[in-house]
Write a structure and sequence with these properties.
mainly alpha
């Protein structure tokens, strides 16, 4: 292959890399999953609510929960009670049904993950979940891959031993 063709190929590959980089930075976020009720974290955080005020971590602390309808209705008995979404929320509450929220993040079964352990170590929710407090709707904003977890563990001097996350606890 001539050096001219080789140089042209290098230029084309370089340009392609730039285009891919620009597209990756300007790409629109993925569509949020369709939820049974509209919910704005942005609005609720602006009212002074904190993540753990609604999302608790019952024993053994592996998952954060979705709030019970009673928690929501403690404000929405009066606040915005005439809105269709709040009327639907009230129906779930009256029927003693949980709102069937669609989980945005889900760890594989073989990964042991404790929200409680991470929160006690000082991790903030937005580290894994993104800028939730700025979102009207949530989507899987950050990867929860082994590499992203290991990178965080390296940055925070947490163990990256295999059995730290892949052992039955």
């Amino acid at each position: 292959m001539s050096s001219t063709k080789l140089n042209l190929i290098k230029v084309v590959l370089f340009v392609c890399a730039i285009v891919v980089s620009v597209l990756a930075q300007t790409a629109k976020p993925p569509e949020p999953p369709q939820q049974p009720l509209p919910f704005s974290h942005k609005l609720h955080v602006a009212q002074g609510l904190k993540c753990q005020g609604c999302h608790t971590s019952p024993d053994p602390g592996w998952q954060m929960t979705f709030p019970a309808t009673a928690k929501c209705m403690s404000c929405h008995e009066e606040t915005a009670a005439d809105k269709p979404a709040i009327k639907q929320l009230a129906k779930f509450h009256q029927n003693k049904e949980a709102v069937p929220w669609v989980r945005v993040y889900q760890n594989p079964d073989w990964v042991w993950f404790s929200h409680r352990a991470h929160l006690e170590a000082g991790a903030k929710c937005d580290r894994c979940h993104g800028a939730v407090s700025e979102r009207e709707a949530l989507w899987k904003e950050k990867p929860i891959t082994m590499e992203s977890c290991m990178a965080c563990h390296r940055e925070t001097n947490a163990s990256n031993a295999c059995n730290y996350c892949h052992d039955v606890h």
